[in-house]
Specification:
2 copies of one chain form a homodimer. Chain A has about 375 residues and is of the alpha/beta class. Chain A has 2 domains: about 10-180, Rossmann fold (3-Layer(aba) Sandwich); about 185-380, Up-down Bundle (Dehydroquinate synthase-like, alpha domain), CATH 1.20.1090.10. Chain A has 15 helices and 9 strands. In chain A, strands 2-9-6-5-3-4 form a 6-stranded parallel sheet, with helices on both faces. Chains A and B meet through strand 1, strand 2, helix 8 and helix 9 of A and strand 1, strand 2, helix 8 and helix 9 of B. Strand 1 of chain A pairs antiparallel with strand 2 of chain B, so a sheet runs across the interface.
Chain lengths: ~375, ~375
Amino acid sequence: MHNFSYYNPTKIEFGKEKENNIGQYLQEAGIKKVLLLYGTGSIQKSGLYDKIVASLRKNAIAFEELSGVVSNPLLSKVNEGIQLIRNNDIEAVLAVGGGSVADSAKAIAAGAKYDGDVWDFFINKAQITEALPVFTVMTLSATASEMNGNSVIINDDTKQKYSISSVFVNPVLSVINPELMKTVTPEYLAYSAVDIIAHSIEIYFTASTHPHFNSRIVESIIKTVMETTEILIANPDDYDARAEFAWVAIQALNGLTPAGTEGGSFPNHMIEHSLSALYNVAHGAGLSIVIPAWMKWYKEQNIAQFERFSHEIFGSKDADVGIEKLQNWFAKIGAPVTLADANIPREGIRDLAQNANGLAAMWGMGDIYSVETITEILEKA
Amino acid sequence: MHNFSYYNPTKIEFGKEKENNIGQYLQEAGIKKVLLLYGTGSIQKSGLYDKIVASLRKNAIAFEELSGVVSNPLLSKVNEGIQLIRNNDIEAVLAVGGGSVADSAKAIAAGAKYDGDVWDFFINKAQITEALPVFTVMTLSATASEMNGNSVIINDDTKQKYSISSVFVNPVLSVINPELMKTVTPEYLAYSAVDIIAHSIEIYFTASTHPHFNSRIVESIIKTVMETTEILIANPDDYDARAEFAWVAIQALNGLTPAGTEGGSFPNHMIEHSLSALYNVAHGAGLSIVIPAWMKWYKEQNIAQFERFSHEIFGSKDADVGIEKLQNWFAKIGAPVTLADANIPREGIRDLAQNANGLAAMWGMGDIYSVETITEILEKA
C-alpha cells in the first residue's frame, strides 16, 4: 500500500428538497453575494431556477447571474465569469447544473483570485493557492465534480481540453437531490453510467499497486451503477435507484478509490478528451468508444486484474469475455461503441491521436502514449 | 435512500514515516502550543515519543504533556487535560496512541472551550458548538476515532460509559503509519478486528432502509478485515496487510457506511459498554461475546439481510451458518465468545442488563432493549 494523503472537506447535503435550503447554507457560511452560474435554460423550464432564487432571497443572499455554460465547457465563459466577479464584489460561486457547470464554477473561483490568465493553471504554468468558495446544486450525476477538486475546460482558441485538480476548488457544499435528475434523457443516463465506470476502472487496471480493498470498492461501484442504470431505463421514476446512482457517481471520483494505489493513470480519459475536443462528442459517449478499444490493447499488461474484473462483474474468468460483455452492455444501454457509431471517420484518427498525444505529454505519459500507439488503439474502435 | 448530510473534513496522512512530519502539519495549521496526550508509556519504549518531540521542536511547537490515558478512558483524566490547557494557553490537542487517547483528546478539546462540566455533553445536557483543534498520531487501528467525531468516555464515579458525536471534534489531521502498529499484540489485533466488524454490521443488520451499495461496502470491509487479520496473525510484519487493516478500520466508522440508510442503531455497542464499564473487559473482547448472542436473538427481525451476510461472507445462504461461522472465526483469532471466556459470572448478567438499559434509554432504545430483553440476549452468551 502506497503512502497517501486523503482530504475531502466537501459537505454533501443529499436528498429530497434540499435545494430549497441553498440560501441558508450560503448564509451559514457567511456569504452575502454569489455568482449564480448555470447552463442553457433547462433549470428555468424545470422550475429549479425559481426555487434557487426564492431560497437566495429568503436568506438575503444577493446575486449576479451568468448562464450559457455548455457541456464540454469553454474557457471564454470562464473568463466572462471572472470578469463579472471582479466587477461586482462577488464572494462565492453557486453552480446549478451538471458537471460542466460545476467545472466552470471551479475555474472561475480560482481565476477570480489570480492576477494572471486562468489558463495558466491548466497548462501547469501556475499553481492554485486560493479560490473563492464554490457551492453546487447538481442536476446530473456523472463527473463527481460535486465532491472533488477537478475541473476540465476546453480552450476555445487552441481546442485543448485540459484539467486542473486542487482541493482549493473542492465545493464547500454540494446539494444532491436525485429528484432533480429525473429529467435526464436515457441517452445522457447511459453516458453518465459509462463515465462513472470509466472513473472506476482507470486506476483499477493501470495501477502497479492496487490493494484488494480498492478493487472491492471499485467492483461495488460498478455493480451498483449497472444495476441502477438498468432499473432507471425501465423506470425513470425509481427514486432509490436514482439516488444510489448519484451517490456511487460521487464515490467513483472523490479520492476514495485511488487511496493507497500507486502508478495509476487515466489513459481512457486522455484519449477521449480528443474526441470531445475535435468532434464535440459527449464525454461519456467518447468514453464508451475508447474503453473497449483500450482494454483490448492493454489487457496483457495486467492480465490478472482483467481476469478478476471479468469474474467479479460478469462471472467469467476469461479476460476477453469481460471486455466483450462490457462493450455489449454499453451498446445495450444506448452508448456508442465504435467511432462509426459517433460519425467519426477513420481519416480523423490521425488528428485525434495528435491531439491526445499533446495531453499525454502534459500528463507525463507522452512516451507511452505516442501518436502511433494512440492511433493503434483508435483503430480498434 | 434516506436523506443525509455527509461531512468529514479530517485530513489523513497515511504511510511510512509520516509521524516525523507532525510538527510541520501543526505549524502549517498555525498552531504554536499543544497538549501532547498519550497512554501508559509504550510510546516511550517504542521510540515514537522521541520522534514526536523531535518533530515538534524542529518546527518550534511548544508543548505540555499529559500521560496515563488508559483503555476504557476515564473522565478524571479528561478533566486533568482541560485544567492543563486552561493553565497553559494551549491551542490544540495532539493525541499519540490508540482510540482511547484520541477519544480523550476530543473530550478535552470540547471541554476546554466550555464553561460547564464536560460530562454535560455526554448526558445530552449541553451541545458541543466549538472545540480546540485535535491532531492524532495513531498506534492502533480499530475505533476509527482518527477520522470521526466520536468519543467514548467512562465516568469514574458513576461507571457510565457514554459517548459524544460532533464534527467539531473530528481530528483536523490524523497520521496513520501502519509500521507503528506492528507491536500490537495478537490479542489486541483480534479485539480490533472484532471492533471493526462490529462497526460494520450494526447498521447493516438493524437499518430499515439499507441500499445495496452500503451492503457492498460493508461486505468489502468485512472481507478485507478477515483476510488481513489472518495474514497478520501468520506474519505480523506484513506491511500491506497492516496498512489495509488500518484503512478499512477507518472506513468502517467515518460516516460512509451509514450514508443513506435509515433506522439503524448500535445495540451491540450499547450492550458491550456495560461489560467494559463493570468488568473492564477490552471493548473488542466484549463485542465478540455480545455479537453472536445478539445475532441469534435478532436474526428473525431481518432474516433476508442475515442470509445475505451468510452468503457474501461465508458462502452459505443459511442465516444460522453465518452466525456460527462468525462466532467460530472470532474464537479462531483468539477473541472470547462467551461470558465465561471473559470470567464474567452468570450472576452478573442482571447488573450488566441494568447498566446497558441505562445507556439504551440515553440512546432512545430503552423500550426495545429493556432489562429483560438484554438479560435474554446475554443469557445466550
